[in-house]
Amino acid sequence: MNIKHSLKISSAALAAFLLAGCTAAPPADGAAADAVQPPPPAAVTFTDVLDHEVTLERWDRVVSLYGSFAETWLLAGGTLVGTTEDAVSERGLELGEDVAVVGTVKEPSLEEVLALSPDFVILSADVAGQVKLHGALAAAEVPHAYYRVDAFADYLAMLKQFCLLTGREDLYEENGLAVREQIDAILASVEGKTGPTALLIRAYSTGAKAKGDDNLAGVILRDLGADNLVDRYESMLEDVSMEEVIAADPEFIFITTMGAEDKALAFMTETFEESPAWAGLSAVKNGRYVLLPKELFHYKPNARWGESYAYLAEILYPELAGKI
After folding, report:
1. Domains in the chain, CATH or no CATH each
2. Which residues of the chain have pLDDT under 50?
């Protein structure tokens, strides 16, 4: 799903006032510096993915309650005063001692967020605990917006909006448009090819579910022309059964893990891999049972989205290996 947002001032106008704020003339004839301070930026109004109208007057003190979105803000040239623990543990961001950790993605601390006096709070529309913060943040008059990123187009839209705020068009080109060019080249290389059948499974410690276009790996498989068999076996969206996997017999089985990877893989071993029927699957017999790396297929890859496309394209179409 693409991010639904619309700036109520044009991109050109936003870029213009950002540029004007950065190019004020120096004081002349010893005039006091405060006499020529640039005017504060005009307010920016847009609608977030949960249809909240958001108005920003400043964005100097930004808190992100999702590590992926924190990274996107940094890729746009922004700075942070606070973010959640996953920014460090999952994304490995070097935040510095002046950036506060305000809890986890699922349980951010509202008290710690408010203590930072933020100008703008960035939240995930897919995390129930964050959605519940809307009323409290609105009551505290803290500007905030919800985002959702399921596909590269969503990331590109977010990055563009952030770069308009920071005035860093160069970073939009470097971390967005250049990545899009890489993806377009990969898609061109597979155009017209008959894609193999595939099954994408997300495993966790107590279960496994097949995934489709609501998952970034599922979107990439679709874009690359793979036939994701979950479209024919929709009950696997709720729970993967051995019987249905055998009936589907995909050419490829891809695994992503959620939570502790060792526990998720242990579940797969105990539930599926120890069965003699599993060894008879086409994907398993042909060495096409693939564990996908978390950094490219579970966490949002952001500026590495092109790497995610290349990784899967070379598996699905071995003749492209080393060429894309």
Report:
1. 11-167 (3.40.50.1980), 192-320 (3.40.50.1980)
2. 1-40
